[in-house]
Amino acid sequence: MSSAAPPVQITGSDEAPIDLEERVALALRLIDAVCDGDDRLVKVLVNDEHADCWIQDAQGWTALHAAAHTGSVEHIKLLLRKGNAVWSIPDNLGCTAGDIAYSMNNTAAYEELLAEGVRAEMLRAVLEAANSSDDSEAGDEDAEMGVTEGTADAVSNDVPEEQKLSTASDNATFLASRLVFTHDSRGQPIALDAEGNGVMMGWESGIMQATARRMCESAWADRGGRKWDELVKEEDEGEREPLRVMNVGFGLGIIDTFLQEYHPTQHLIIEPHPDVLAFARSNGWFDDRPGVRFYEGTWKQYLKDLEAGKEEYVGWDGVYFDTYSEHYADLHAFFQTLPDLLSTSPNARFSFFHGLGATSRLLYDVYTTVSELHLREIGLATEWSEVEVGEEGVGRWEATGAGTDGKRAGKDDDADGAKKPRTQGEGEKKYWREDMVGRYRLPLCRLEC
Ligand SMILES: C[S@@+](CC[C@H](N)C(=O)[O-])C[C@H]1O[C@@H](n2cnc3c(N)ncnc32)[C@H](O)[C@@H]1O
């Protein structure tokens, strides 16, 4: 017969066992001491008692959240440098310590947490890059299999439920899953993945329009309203510069529609998803659009084909990157290829969709800085401009009830899977929190001479 399990024993710094309850109690005392501004006790708990700085209280706060709230830079430094505080832990409302400091106007505390986030993410990128070559090869092959062999059903049927990866965070899983193209209740077009996550939403149209303009208007504005063949004739006669653009990730074709306003000489669209390609086909993108060509595969496959001589080196004047279910490490890897992809024209520009960490002010600031630093490392200077996205309903998608795998997207099903009635706004997931982030930051990058 079994008796009640003994308390979990862990080993403290003095090697004496401490039980879990004691450890939690110590961490909660630390949070209180930080809130009370009790410097002496905070130091004792961190330096001598080795209280865990990452343990969360009932509202999800760690000692770092408490220090961000009081604005004590001294406590923040102590918790990060002498304790084991983690800068990115969100509380129950999704706020990191940095978000608390920002909302309290504790500027010095915010700066300290931002610097910690940037340091940690730069280090993480170095470690990921060092470990990635084997993983990315394997991942890429998975993606290729999903796309070229159209194995969506085979993949989803053969893999046990508990081992399935999410369509939102695993590219191969996404590429092997089915998509739905529909409209939300506000009439905005949306593309949903098999779990009901928004792949692309009409509300991003303003961002896409502003991006296409920023990329093209300085050097190619006079192409608007002209005919493609007239423009190409003028290019052939040496009277004007050609415009060659590449877009990675078609989605709803929004940015491609705006890029078409400049009648690019060449317009390459890299898109691997069979359902997106079918959507593009049904919207006339494969019919006689001068200069437009689709590469039907992932950008990693495209780069391999480029290296193998199966694709021609072009020298693109505009490159845009906006994929789905990839990670910052993938975007970072794409950055490295830009010196080879961009043309030598002083007008050549690169941009990407910057939704990185867009549910937190701190994370958004960290990724703005980290991406700019990584671009600078490969010789690209970045200018940021802001785009307003804050109208009502923006930044959300409305779950439509079922993903393409027949499962409910939201968390609001009954245990037996029965669907509950939904009111407007209910069950909406956010990946953009305008209350936290404010305006969208549009990056525009150019190669420095
Ligand atoms: C957010 S949508 C792009 C939306 C687009 N910017 C627009 O204006 O409509 C992302 C697209 O990237 C595609 N995608 C996902 N993984 C990709 C990959 N590895 N290489 C290229 N495209 C990819 C998806 O199929 C999807 O069409």
UniProtKB/TrEMBL annotation:
Keywords noted in UniProt: ANK repeat, Methyltransferase, S-adenosyl-L-methionine, Transferase
- List, alphabetically, the InterPro entries matched: Ankyrin_rpt, Ankyrin_rpt-contain_sf, RMT2/GAMT_Mtase, RMT2_dom, SAM-dependent_MTases_sf
One cellular component term (GO) for this entry is:
nucleus
Query: A GO term (biological process) for this protein?
Result: methylation
Stored Pfam families = Ank_2 (PF12796)
- The biased composition feature labelled Basic and acidic residues covers 405-429
Q: Which domain of life does the UniProt lineage start with? A: Eukaryota
Provide the residue span(s) of the region labelled Disordered. Answer: 395-429
Please report the residue spans annotated as repeat (ANK). 59-83
A GO MF label: protein arginine N5-methyltransferase activity
| All copies of domain RMT2, residue ranges | 165-449
Q: Does the keyword S-adenosyl-L-methionine apply?
A: yes
Per its record, how is this protein called by name?
Arginine methyl transferase
Please give the organism: Rhodotorula diobovata
